[in-house]
Structures are given as structure tokens and as C-alpha cells.
Amino acid sequence: MRVLVTGAAGYIGSHTAVELLHAGHHVTGVDDFSEGRRGIDADIARITGQPIEIHDLDLRDASAVNVLLATGHFDAIVHLAGRKFVGESVREPLLYFDRNIGTTVPILQAAQTFGVQQIVFSSSCTVYGNPTHLPITEHSPLVPTTPYGFTKRAIEQLLADLCVSQPELSIMSLRYFNPIGAHESGLLGEEVGGIPNNLMPFLMKVATGELPEFTVFGDDYDTPDGTCIRDYVHVVDIARGHVRALEALETRSGFSALNLGTGVGRSVLEIIGACRAATSHDIPYQVHPRRDGDAVEVYADPQRAAEEIGWKAERTLEEMCADHWRFTVASSRRGSMS
Ligand code: UD1
Predict the structure, then answer these.
(1) Is residue 255 scored above 90 in pLDDT?
(2) Which residue owns the Cα nearest ligand 1 atom 30?
(3) Does residue 268 lie in a domain region?
(4) Mean pLDDT throughout 302-327?
(5) How many whole angstroms from 271 Cα to the centroid of ligand 1?
(6) Distance from the alpha carbon of residue 28 to the mean position of ligand 1, in angstroms
(7) Whose CA is nearest to atom 35 of ligand 1?
(8) Is 46 contained in some domain?
(9) Is 11 a member of any domain?
């Protein structure tokens, strides 16, 4: 298939481009490089042995998007572009509506104009908000609690409505749980500057010594060790989920949403232990008060993804930590050489 990947220079996008190329698809990328790394196309080509073009383009520019789709003859779009920082979305809701919804409308309009009928959308478990029942199934209530979550929920609704109005469309929304890890080559991973908001990049910076200690947000939750529980899933497994989804779309129509998670919840202290083992570094931490808005426990029921697209997370927590560490070490070497 000829596939357009939006957000191809980002964390999930670059891994997804690699897996699509490995699966034999022809991939074109687009990214505005606000978060994505320039030069990542060369790393993707190094891993896959195949060149990839990533157009520098703002998806809010409807005429540029039209030109891209008019010339690309795409069979499918994997739409990953968007901003994803929960705290930032609370501070700047307009930015999130502009960058997430405002980028999605032109690409969907162009898809309609040029007859692209298969779409995979990057969603998040954040659409469920604070779950009342575990594990989370796709039928769990959708009650996002932040502007970021609302944008994902709103786009899913738009995609579902589009499928009603155009029965020939085939669209799948993938709700990622907590993607961590990196490509085993050490060439692709999540680049995070400054003090990270998310668990894994923060732990890695403590392991390298760049930050002195990790902050555990609360150890007085009603969980076995008192810390919050999440469903961490390897980014390469997530990337492969897109390949499976795309291939499944060829023989179906309508909208569906699938959880991409392992089905296993891990506590913050368990992740610290796994990172200590993977990095062979002590990771000092202090317990601080709970972080506002944190759900206690979040993990997926991934059964539907297994049934509908034959996807199952395969990589272990040890692999997630080891791969994330390899990328962290390799990227800090690259940084000190440049
Ligand atoms: C958030 C987003 C989610 C997104 C994910 C990864 C919400 C509510 N959450 O998830 O959509 O997929 O980021 O981008 O929408 N923790 C610490 N100390 C830290 C950082 C985190 O103890 O310095 C703990 C948190 O309390 C939490 C766990 O680690 O229990 C994971 O946190 P984080 O990596 O920020 O992800 P989430 O908040 O689960």
C-alpha cells in the first residue's frame, strides 16, 4: 500500500514508518518538526534499507495538504501528528484544539477529495479518564479529563460520524496505553529536553546522572506498594499495531477503536526496579505528594485487538527498559559528538 504517515518524525511515527517499511509498504511522511527530529529520515533509511521522504509541512495549511494528496496517490493515511502533553493542554487548551483538531480537519477533507478511504488514527487511553472498572475495555465510558484527552475523544467522534456519512470508509482508532522503549538499533526513541513530565524519560535522566533523583508522585494509593499502576507497552509493539490495523482495514468498513496495551499493570516502584536492572545504575528517588489528576490504576483489556487485528504486545518490561536505555546512551553520545 502507499501510506502517508503524519507525524512521521515523532516518537510513535518514526517507529511506525519503520514497521510499515519492513512490512513492504511504500511510506511517505509529513511532519512540521515542532517536536520531531530533522534527520530522522536518514535513521529510518539506515534501519530499513529503504529511503523515506518526510515532507516539512504544517497540516493546518489546507492547500499544501491538498497538493500532497493530489500527487501522492495514497491508499491509506496513518494520522499521528499532534501534541500530547497533558499539563500543557491544561495551560493552553486553544493550542490543543488548534494543533490536534485543526490539523485533522484538512487531512480528512483532502482524504475525502482524493478518495483515500483507509485511515488509522493515533488515540490514547486518556479518552477513558479515570476508569471505574478494570481492565479497561473499549466499551468503558469515555470521560476524558483534560483538553488533550478531549481532542482525542472529539476526533474519534468525528471519525465515527464520517464513517456513518460515507459507508465506504474504513477507519481504526488505536488507543495507546503508556508507550515506552525505543528501537533496538538505538537510533530511534523519544527525545525529551529539560525536566521530563513522563516517568520513563525522567528515570533515564536520573540513571545517566543528568538529574540527581527521581520523584515518585505518591506512595499512599490503594495499590500493593502504594504507587500508581499503568500499562506500559513497547513502542515497537505499538508501531506494529498500526501495520496490523492498516492491513485489517483492507477487508472491512466503518469505524472501530482498539486498545493497545499489554493487559498488565505495573507500579512506579516496579518500573524503577526494572530500570535499575536494565541500566545497572542506582536510581535514587524521593516520594513526593500525589500529582494532581493522576488516575490510581490504568490497564487495558487488549482482547479486542487480538481478535480484530491479530495484535498482541510481545515485548517484556525488561526489553522496554533495556531498549529505552540503549537509545538514551546512544543519543547522549551523538549529542556530545555534535
Ligand atoms: C500520560 C498521559 C497519557 C500518555 C502518557 C505518555 C493522561 C492522564 N496521561 O500518562 O495520555 O499516553 O502520559 O505520554 O492523559 N510518575 C512519577 N514521577 C514522575 C513522572 C511520573 O511518579 O516524575 C508516575 C505518575 O504518577 C504515573 C506514572 O508515573 O503514575 C506514569 O506517568 P506518566 O509517564 O506521566 O504517564 P501517565 O500520566 O500515565
Answers:
(1) yes
(2) 228
(3) no
(4) 98
(5) 12
(6) 31
(7) 198
(8) yes
(9) yes
Q: Is 115 exposed, middle or buried (0-12, 13-18, 19+ CB in 10 A)?
A: exposed
pLDDT digits (tens, 9 = 90+) for 61-77: 999 999 999 999 999 99
pLDDT of residue 335: 79
CA angle, residues 241, 85, 110, in degrees to nearest 5: 60
pLDDT band of residue 338 (cuts 50, 70, 90) is: low
Task: Tell the residue nearest (CA) to atom 29 of ligand 1.
Answer: 199
For residue 292, the model assigns a pLDDT of 87
So which residues are the catalytic ones? 148
Nearest CA to ligand 1 atom 10: 178
pLDDT band for position 275 (50/70/90)? very high
* Alpha-carbon span 136 to 139, nearest angstrom: 8
Distance 222 CA to ligand 1 centre (A): 17
> What is the bridge-based pairing of β-strands 2-6 and 254-260?
unpaired
* Phi, psi dihedral angles at 329 (to 5 degrees): -65, -45
Q: Which atom, in ligand 1's list, is nearest to the CA of 148?
A: 15
Residue 93 has pLDDT above 90, yes or no: yes
**pLDDT band (50, 70, 90) for residue 221:** very high
Task: Output the average pLDDT for the chain.
Answer: 96
How many domains does the chain fold into? Answer: 1
For residue 112, the enclosing domain spans 2-181+232-261
Residue 2 pLDDT level (bands cut at 50, 70, 90): very high
- Three-state SS annotation for 125-173: HHHHCCCCCCCECCCCCCCCCCHHHHHHHHHHHHHHHHHHHCCCCEEEE
Phi, psi of 244 (to 5 degrees): -60, -40
3-state secondary structure of 181: coil
Provide residues with CB under 6 Å of ligand 1: 84, 86, 124, 126, 149, 178, 197-199, 202, 215-217, 228, 230, 268, 291, 294
- What CATH number is given to the structural domain containing 111? 3.40.50.720
Q: Are 174 and 123 in contact (CB under 8 A)?
A: yes
Q: Tell me the C-alpha distance between 177 and 261, whole Å.
A: 5
Cα(300) to ligand 1 centroid in Å equals 15
Residue 70, pLDDT score: 97
* Position 94 in a domain: yes
